[in-house]
Each structure stands twice: as C-alpha cells, then as structure tokens.
Fold:
Amino acid sequence: MSLRSTTGCSTCKTKRKKCDETKPKCLKCVQKGLNCEYQYVEPTGRGTRIRTKPAPRPPSEQAKLLAKQQASLKEASELVNVAEGLETPAELFEPSLAPPVEATVPPDTDWSALLYEPVAIPSLDSVSTQVILSPPMAPQYSPLPRILTSGQASLFDALFSLDKDGSAWRVDDRSNSALLTSSNEHMSDQSRPTVHPPLDLVPDTDTSEYEDDEDDRGPGEAFCQSPIVLDRTVDSNLLVFVLHSYAQLMPLVIFDPLKAGSRTKHTVVGRFLGSEISRSRVLLISEVARRLSKSPNLDERGEKMLLSLGEQVWGNVMSYQTQVWPPSEDERKRANAALVHIVEALNIHAITAPLGPILSLLRSAAPVFLCACPPPHPPHMADLLLTIRDDIVLGHFAVCDVVTSVVTGRPLLCRYHVPWSLELCNEFTKDEKLGLRWLFGIPDQFVMLFAYMDGLWKDAQASGTTVDLDIIQRIEEDIGNIDILPCRTSDSSLAIGRMVVQECWRQVLLEANALDHRVKKAQKGFMKLLKATKPRRNPDVFTIMPMIIAGAVTTKSTHRQIIISRFLSMPEFANPGVAGNDLLRMLEDIWARTNMEGRPARWEDLREACQRVIGI
Structure:
C-alpha cells in the first residue's frame, strides 16, 4: 500500500487523489480548471518537515467512526466490570488520574481458570520452595505520563503492524493531534475495542532511570514527531494502553525487541480478547510493565501487583500434576496456555526478583513445558528454534533453560535432542527471521551447542566415563567456524554492541581452567571486546550472561573492576535482591575462594558459587 501524500494540495487531498505537488498549482488542478491551494501546517518546533493540512474526513466515514466508538464504549464498560480486582479502569493508572485506592487484586481472586484446568503430567523431583520476590523498595511516584522514546515508538509501530496480513496502524497529522486508525482484519468491529480520535497529547517531563535502551528512529518516526500519551481514563483506549505498556517493557528484557513486535501483538491481543479473567490479567501485567519501564524500583502499589502476579503463577505451577502421559492434544493446549503466563512472569522477574525464585520457578515449570511440547520426546531443539510460529513460548522456555544453566553451572532442566553439525547451524543463516537470537542475544547455534554439550556430559556421567577427546576437539573447531548473521539496526553503535554480545558468547564456550592457554586467549578476546564498547544498558544487560563465564576465569584486578562497574552501571542490577546483583555476588565468591585457595578457577566453581550464594 502506497503512503499517503503529506505535501499535496488541498483540492487533491479532499478528492482523495494523488497530487503531483507542482508549485504554485498542481498540474491536475490546472488541467481540470479547479482552484488549487497549498495549506501548510504551522511548524511546532519539534521538526523541520513541511506538511500540508490533511483533508476533512467524508461524512460517511465520520458516521462509521461514531458508530464504532459507541460500540466500543459499550464493550469497554463490560471489560471494566469483569476486572473485579481493579475496581475501575482509572485505578489502573497514575495516582494523578485516579482516586487513591489501596486495593489491587483481592487475595481471594480465583486465577486458576486463567492458567488452565487441572491436567496431568509426570512431575520432576518434588520441589518445596516458597517464591521470594524483591523486597519493598523506595516508593517512586511520577505524576506525569511517560512519552515514548524513539526506539519504543518504533517498537510500538511494530506492535501495530503485522507483516503477513498487511494490517497497519497509521498516524496522521491533524492540527498537531494524532489519530490512530486500524485496518486489522483479524478482529471484527463487534469483537474488539477500537481506538478513536482524538487521543490526548500531553507534554511529558518524566524521565526514566534507564538510559540508551532504544534503537534509532524506525517505522514509528511519526510517533516521535507527535508524541502520543494515551488518556488512560478513556475505556476505548484499553487495548492501546496495554500494547503501549508492553512496548515500554520489551526493550528492558528483550535483546532486539523490534523483532518481537508482531508476535507480541498476536499473543497480547489474543489474551485481551479471551476470557474475562485473562483480560484482567493482561491489564494487571501491563500496569506492572508500565511502572517497571520508568524505574526498576517499584512503589508500594507496584510491589503488591508484582507479588500477586508471582504468587498466583507459582501456585498454579506447583499444582500442575497428574499421572497421564503422554498428554492429549487438549492437555498440551492447556499446558501451552499456562506456559505463556510463566514465561511472561519470568520476563518481569528477571529485573525485579532474586535469582533463587527465578531458578525455582523454571525448575517447577519444566514439567509444564514438557507437557506442552508436541511429540517426539525428548523435544528437538532445532525444531523449537527453527520453526516460524506466532507463539514462540516453547522456544522461549528452552532458551531460558540454556541461559540459566550456562550462568549458574547447573545441568539443563530438560533433555533435548540435538543432532549437532555445522550444516544444521547454517540453517539459521538462510533467513534472518529464523531462530530466537533476538530474545537474549545468544546465537541460536550456541543454544544448540550448549544443549548438545549438556547431553554429552549427562551421558558420560550416567556411564561413568568421560567425553571422547575427538568430540571435544571437533566442538572447538566448530566454534570458530559457526557463521552468525549480523544484527541490523540504524544505530551503528547499537549494532556494534549487539555483535559484541554474540562474539562474547563465542569466546566463553571453552570449559578448561583459567590458566589453560585456550581459556586465556578467549578471556583476553572477551575483555578486548568489552573495553571497545562504551557502557550502555543495551547491550551491557545482555553481555552480563557471557560476562559471568568470562569473569569467572578473570585473574587481573583491573579486568575484575571493569566487570564490576559494568554490572553496577545498570540500575536494575545495582540493588541487592535482584538476579543481576546475585550473579555479581557469585563472581565475587569465585574470585575470593580461588584467591584464598591459590588455584585457577574452573567451570565447576560456577555451580558451587550458585549453591553458596543462592542456596540452589
């Protein structure tokens, strides 16, 4: 679909015709003897782009919009009535826009219907662990709404733009106000809330504690020129508010959030239009996400929301047990629905909760993951990563399993089938849409390699032998021959930083002690890459994972100080009681213990540090 002209004459715009934009009068108007005039929009000081005023909407379209608005207001009021724990839609939002109400979600709310009906799978070893979320932090209230940064605007645009179905959300300048219109055909006008003009445009002076977490200008450039702040008290804005909140959170927890735009939209919109409890749950998560996007230090009300979210997910996961195996198709669907909420909770807990509860939740959720996986079993890692689907929850969990295993030295929670070969690795280079590298920055080839190495280790442990030296040598050779597609972004510094993350993973794949010449070479290369990039939240927050392995074998005090400073430069890792800070304490434990014992660090020290610091 071609873009609508922004500098055409008033006559052509009114007639909905393409203008050739000849000055002082366009050729079309001259040939037809029509009056031709260019009416320019007054500059606002936010940019230098010249635009002409848009034509008025025809009466038929205005009537259609009015009918949609009335229908959506009626449906939105019904949505509010079912969100029992939120009292009123205004209570979801800023204190300045709503009466001060302390209650959030009632403790007796039944969330079980949200996740699944009880089904059966074989459970892992029983785990009796109580989830412990972040301790209360200093309340921080911001009376003004938050404006989208340029990168979040690009992501927000991606959330409203599905590549496959040609739907689009457009922003038209109309007397310096923004208008969102949707041509999405997946949801009928009768079955979904719609967004209607005008949306409130409010100057925003709020600042975020996060810095440099966005790409340069992208598809959402129009959002940046006319920054949109939704009126959170308007019921018809609920869906847009939810997507806006997700767009704000995603750059904090996803390596390349623009790649996740359409998938996130499919998932969130589907749940928003699902059951009444599911819709209420989406609203709750979006409010937590909005608060976290401003600061990792939640206020008291945000802590209550987060606590309720964690307790309900944890309780349902722990009760997910029966004796039926293999699972039926219906059970797999229910398990998959449960896993969506688990993964979503893990994303939020990654920047708010200690490492211990995250590991416990992952371990307890492993049976749910296995139940959700289609046959054959064990799950095929390549299929989880290579299959293009809107719902990537299975692959997401598998990547979480691998990443947490790598940074803690613990075995994988699940066994995966990995027929390792460079030919299989090359499949990921055929199409940049393949794989889940955009999640945490770890190349998919390395995810498979870690899973393959874990399987070799478990087989050797079970047989009481060691891994064949020829296999080890082949793995070392393959590491240097793996091709990885470059990251594409208009921000050159961000592209370089993301490539550093991927190369850092390549540097840390050796499991010898700190004095081994191969490890010393890899560690030296890692530090060279790290020092070559300026401190910046993205990619630093995703460099943390390979930094743990490289840091464990770091012996120079100057290099250790660089690693510590990179950890503490990120606001969500500076405070005790969060996963990033726990990982730093694990590193410090390894350094202190190896110094005291006068020996080089080994791979096993990560596992011991996890037990000593985290208790798991």
Remarks:
- The CA atoms of residues 16 and 338 lie 48 Å apart.
- The beta strands are 169-171, 180-182.
- The first helix runs from residue 10 to 14.
